Model the fold of this input.
Amino acid sequence: MDGFHRSHVYMLEFAASSTREKLEKARNDLQTAYEGFVQKLNQQHQTDRTELENRLKEFYTAECEKLRNIYIEEAEKYKTQLQEQFDNLNAAHETTKLEIEASHSEKVELLKKTYETSISGKGAFCHFSRDVMERHRIH
Done:
């Protein structure tokens, strides 16, 4: 090989080496850019995930609070309804009790009058019988 060819080969090798270095640098730059992009994408994904988790927690908390309020409201309605039924039952019981007591008092009074009448009748009969017996003795 002569000097011309050698210098030409040398220049080609130099150009290839220079191109290889440029390609390697470009590849390294692309790798760095890719890794930066993936890192930013992962960070955005984590940020989105955290935001979504927070929104879900807020939604869940709000829904739980709504359900709790509905439960309390329904429990209060039921409590009021039961209290009304209890009060009505107490009032009916008290009315029945007073009616029974009044009826009992009336029956007791009637029994007293009947007893007194029967005693006064027996007393009159006894007086009448005594008078009759005394008359028979005297005569």
Summary: The first helix runs from residue 3 to 138. The chain has one domain: 1-100. Residues 1-100 form one domain.
